[in-house]
Amino acid sequence: MITMGKRSVVRTPPIKCQGIKTKLVPFILSSIRWSQGESGRWIEPFLGSGVVAFNLAPRRAILADINPHIIRFYRAIQNGSITPADVQQHLFREGRLLEARGEAHYYAVRKRFNHMADPLDFLFLNRAGFNGLIRFNQEAQYNVPFCKKPGRFSPAYITKIVNQVRWVSLQMQGKAWEFRVASWEEILDLARPEDFVYLDPPYEGRHTDYYNQWTTEQTERLVARMLQLPCGYALSMWLENEYRRNLLVDYLSKHLVIRVYQHFYHIGAEEVNRRWIREALLIHPDYVAEETATLAHPKPAALHHDIHPADSEPVQMSLFDASIERQCDISTQEPIVGI
Ligand SMILES: C[S@@+](CC[C@H](N)C(=O)[O-])C[C@H]1O[C@@H](n2cnc3c(N)ncnc32)[C@H](O)[C@@H]1O
Predict the structure, then answer these.
(1) Ligand 1 atom 12: residue of nearest CA
(2) Torsion angle (degrees, nearest 10) of CA 35, 330, 336, 221
(3) Gap between the terminal Cα atoms of the chain
(4) CA-proximal residue: ligand 1, atom 20 (nearest)
């Protein structure tokens, strides 16, 4: 039986991607109540970096993404065809060539990857490319530019990545995890009553690339399908910033429990340029974890008022402020890219 509690130490996986939920892992996992039982599976159709599933480490899981390179990479770790030692050697060799030849080497590896699709080259590009982006053009060719740091693969940086690979490999051991390349529709068809589905689709209209063609129509189809699932589920959605608000979240507050995570980011170094952003986790009402005293946060009146549409059923809401997260021992300060 798994009951998700507060996760105080978040580990980061070796692959980075847009919308990575590293900072939100404690918030997500502490908001959900689910018992895995004898046969329940954690189903994650939009796996991305895998940071949520890998930190939860359920006994059984279906971990899927439409991007075959992500899945191939994690499968290779799972079946032992990529080991931490392989990663160390590959990054050492390619890192030295990068230092010697500069960006020409990055682009040579990118070209090689676009022919051969070697998972180790995928890792190298992901960690040498601009801002940890994963982006493919309309011909499915990887097209992220170089990060302009030829000396990036220092011994410390390589060790950090190797340790991330080792950690992911350890998390997989003894677990029945199935990695699949598939679109979310196919994966949701697999859900059974004892499973739990965590959904984290791409942001609409942002980071559009070959594997991230996400539209309003897709969001609507996903939500409609989610509401029919035979099991528990939670959906991550962008809620609002100073300028815009996602009205679909208001609509869904009639059916689901909403928990809100607020955090801040800076545009430049000045404090006046500090901006807030709120993200929502929409949870099936039967699968909401009780709030603990340490996580509960008084609802600011404005937020409370904003979220409750006048005609909706009362919903349970809470605000998980990033300042609370700072009390936890968060081992990473990775930025959430592209919010
Ligand atoms: C916001 S990211 C998920 C981030 C992830 N939760 C994390 O923390 O790293 C969305 C992911 O959905 C994948 N994706 C996009 N369209 C998809 C589709 N139609 N079916 C399945 N996965 C899709 C993308 O490749 C991307 O990895």
Answers:
(1) 46
(2) 10
(3) 34
(4) 183
Alpha carbon distance 50, 64 (integer Å): 9
In 3D space, the residue among 51, 24, 45, 83 whose CA is nearest the CA of residue 295 turns out to be 24
Q: 215 pLDDT exceeds 60? A: yes
Instruction: Give me the domains of the chain, ranges plus CATH numbers.
Output: 22-66+182-325 (3.40.50.150), 78-165 (1.10.1020.10)
Residue bearing the CA closest to ligand 1, atom 19: 183
Ligand 1 shell residues, CB under 6 Å: 17, 19-21, 45-46, 48-49, 51-52, 65-67, 183-184, 200-202, 211-212, 214
Q: Which one, of 317, 272, 270, 313, lies nearest residue 297 by Cα?
A: 317
Is the distance from CB of 214 to CB of 202 less than 8 angstroms? yes
The pLDDT tens digits of the residues spanning 109-131 come to 999 999 999 999 999 999 999 88
From the list 75, 79, 100, 158, the residue with the least C-alpha distance to 124 is 158
